[in-house]
Amino acid sequence: MTARKLARQFALCSALAAFAIAGGLSAAPAQAASEIKVIVNKQAITSYQIQQRAAFLKLRRAPGGTQAATDELIDEALKTQEMRRRGIQIPDAAVDEAFARFARDNKLTEAQLSEVLARAGFSAKGFKDYIRVQMGWGQAVVANVRQTERITEQDAVQRMIQQGGKKPTTTEYTLQQVIFVVPQDKRGSQMERRMSEANLLRQRFTSCPATYDIAKGLRDVTVRDLGRIPQPELPPRWKDEIVNAARGKTTKAQQTERGVEFVAICDSRSVSDDQTAAMVFQANEMEAMGKKEPDKAFLKKLRDKAAIIRR
Question: What share of the chain is helix, strand, coil (3-state, %, to 5)?
Answer without folding.
Answer: 60, 15, 25
